[in-house]
Amino acid sequence: MSSNESILKQIFIDVFPDVDESSFKWDKKQNDYENWDSFAHLRIISEIEEKFSIQLDVEDVIYITNAFGFLKIIKNKTN
Amino acid sequence: MKSINEIIDNSAKKNPSKSAVIYDDLVLSYAELFQKTNSLSNFIQDKTTPGKVISLLYENSPFFIISYFSILKSGCIAHIIPPTISDFNLKEQIRETNPEIILSSNNFKHKLNRTELMNQVFFINNDSKFFKLNDDFYGNQFNEISSIIFTSGTTSKPKGVKLTHKNVLTATNNIVKKIGLQSYDIEINSLSLSHSFGLGCLHAIFLQSATSIIFKNTINLKEILNKGLSQNATGFVGVPVTFYKILDSFNELFSSILSIRYMLTNTAPMKKESILEIMNLFPKTNFYTYYGLTEASRSTFLLFNENKNKINSVGKPAPGIKIKILDDDGKNLSINQIGEITIKGDNVITNYWNNSKADNSINYGWLKTGDLGYFDSDGFLYLKSRKDDMLNVGGEKFTPEEVELVIKEIPEILDAGVIGISNDLFGQVPVAFVVTNKKISSTYIIKQCNEKLERYKIPQKIIFLNNIPKTDSGKIQRNILKSKFI
Description:
heterodimer; A: about 80 residues; mainly alpha; Non-ribosomal Peptide Synthetase Peptidyl Carrier Protein, Chain A; globular; B: about 475 residues; alpha/beta; Rossmann fold; GMP Synthetase, Chain A, domain 3; 9-stranded mixed beta sheet; about 25% strand
């Protein structure tokens, strides 16, 4: 697992109390999390911005519904 | 009507086959809703006695609705817990309300396990079978407590708002009257049902035997709008953040729902340009806002379309509601003078749940809201600011003190001050300033906050300072903190 992937995984573990190392899945859908609401979305975005030192545009992230979607954006922004 | 649950009983009698709730692919008719609430109510009556508290922890779902109305039908008090609640506050609210049982869904098993509340819980889901025993339900409850919803206090501790059936039915009737809800209406409810705004809209829809489309997750706007389009929705209710996101990203899809005849927003002042943009997109649609607190729901209404020169106001008092503006000495202020908004009416609570300190804000039926505002010469109410430093993040209100207390529990923190800074999407987001006795990371502080606070209360940024600016009396000078941030 690349460092990008492990950092993002840790962000999801921190934001969602029901997610841990073993239950984390890249393709787990927004609806299957314990309350992935707009505030959780905001927290994920601000954690990503801080940890990866990047700026995310609302238009880029509003459609994202799983961890993999965020990973793709991070890869685009950091490459 | 003497009890909220009669809303469903009456609609089931008049319009049994009409759709009450649409959720994903599930459509629940009024007859089905009536039958399911009767069955669960019998189960509840078997477990407890009228007047006892029963807690509800659900995301938006038909099970929330069935459970809520069943509790009322049993003559019990529904303690409504928002699904966003932190583990810490969940335990606090359960300790405060001391419920007989907790009704919840499987999705909260982890949370209830973590908080050691599993022994009190009954999970209500598709497989739940409750046999109907009798039709002997609790009758007139007009002046009795229907529900408890916790809101932020003017100090750090959340306070339980004790709503009576009368309070709720008054607000419900006012929504129906002001918006002109009809039985043919199909409303997209993009709100959380555990909040006064979302639940109030549901009550009004049910009173008129209309249809509510609800969603588990209110963040997926594309799905919400597509559902509205396919169902020929006639109404849309949402917080300003939802409207902003729609205008930013789903403008075309939104404006293709030609059947929408009304929209309603609330909880935070909406940007003037967004209001105008919506009215431009939907020239024939009535667009409303209102002002109210959980303690005094739907106290004013404003129809933007008819009051284009009053767009910044929150409208005029609703039928039967009195509002006055008071100065610090409790004297009435005149037109255009800013003071504390104070409300009286059948929508206003009598007192809080076991909180005599908070009860001081209610005198002879007049509720001091803590909101500052004024009336113009035409009788329109304008909101200016708060008496305290309450933050409003996407419609969720809380005091900075609540966040400061949690941060100050961290051993390395010597002092902390929290402010709200402007955010395009959420209106405000919290930022924390901290003084530490040794080097610690922002992540460490945020992690601690995560354990005790709801997500919207968690600071988006941590700024390290040598000291927190304070007045001689020890009050945090938040304006100085704000200037430091800019």
